[in-house]
Amino acid sequence: MNVIPDCGLAPGMVAVLAAHGAEQFEKLEEIHIRVGGLPQTPKPPLDYQLVFSVEGLINEYIEPARVIRDGKIAIVESMTEIESLTFPEFGKMEAFQTSGGTSTLVETFLGKVRDLDYKTIRFPGHCVKFKTMIDLGLCKWEPIDVDGTPVKPRRVLGELLVKNLPHDEPDVVLVRLEFAGDSRRLRYDIIDRSDPETGLSAMMRTTAFPASIVALMMARNQTTSKGALPQERCIPPQTFMDELAKRNIRVEMT
């Protein structure tokens, strides 16, 4: 019997992709994971649309990130270390530290790699704009007095994001994993768009399909180990990749 947590996109699918990439190296040194769920047509001011819980989004932005740095587990502040990256058709994007994406990977790869991290992909400028709201205290639960009424800033921000950000417009999920070792580099890219024929958004596809694949593999007794284990330790990576391809989630390797 298996208990396999964190089935989805990130954490989730990227953990199995990390395991697949790691198998391609004798001596692996680095794993860098970048993921973003985005509108295909961004709109100001944040160039973002809600593709999952607003509370989950805020948590990812304010809680610390866990990474491996120089062979040790380290804690890094979210919304920091902005970097640039590019994707075909989308051009220049940004990525920055957020919490949750590494999940159990830091324990799985501790002692096996020098560096491992996870960053969220957004359109350029998003991080600075949202970080300003965090710095102003808009993500805090502690009530403030407004004309004699206690008001929780985070509730106000959450309601305003739900009210003003798009929800159901065509979306895209961008995924990039980069590996380094054996004096070479390997990159996995996914660009998955919403499917108008099925009505499934890209976030639905890249969250639900990986979860269903893991469930099917458990039912088919295809896991490599039994017990309560993360995906990267018990899901056969190539079998998982083959199942993704059957659902038209394509991983480009370079």
Written overview of the protein:
Strands 5-6-7-2-10-11-13 form a seven-stranded mixed beta sheet, covered by helices on one side. A two-stranded parallel sheet has the order 1-12. The chain has a two-stranded antiparallel sheet with strand order 3-4. 32% of the residues lie in helices and 30% in strands. Helix 1 crosses helix 6 (202-219) and helix 1 crosses helix 8. It has 254 residues and is an alpha+beta fold. The radius of gyration is 19 Å and the shape is globular.
Give a brief rundown of this model:
The chain has 254 residues and is of the alpha+beta class. The chain is built from eight helices and 13 strands. The longest helix has 18 residues, at 202-219.
Number of E-type strands: 13
The residue ranges in which pLDDT falls below 50 over 5 or more consecutive positions are: none
Class based on secondary structure composition and strand pairing: alpha+beta
Q: From the alpha carbons, calculate the radius of gyration and give it in angstroms.
A: 19 Å
Overall body shape: globular
**CATH fold-level label:** Dihydrodipicolinate Reductase, domain 2
Secondary structure: helix percent: 25-40%
Q: Order of SSEs, N→C? A: EHEHEEEEHEHEEHEEHEHHE
Strand content: 25-35%
Number of helices: 8
Number of domains: 1
Tell me the name of the CATH homologous superfamily.
Dihydrodipicolinate Reductase, domain 2
First-to-last CA distance: 36 Å
| CATH architecture descriptor | 2-Layer Sandwich
**Briefly, what CATH class?**
Alpha Beta
The whole-number mean of residue pLDDT values reads: 96
Largest sheet: spatial strand order:
5-6-7-2-10-11-13
Described by strand count, sense and barrel closure, the largest sheet is:
7 strands, mixed
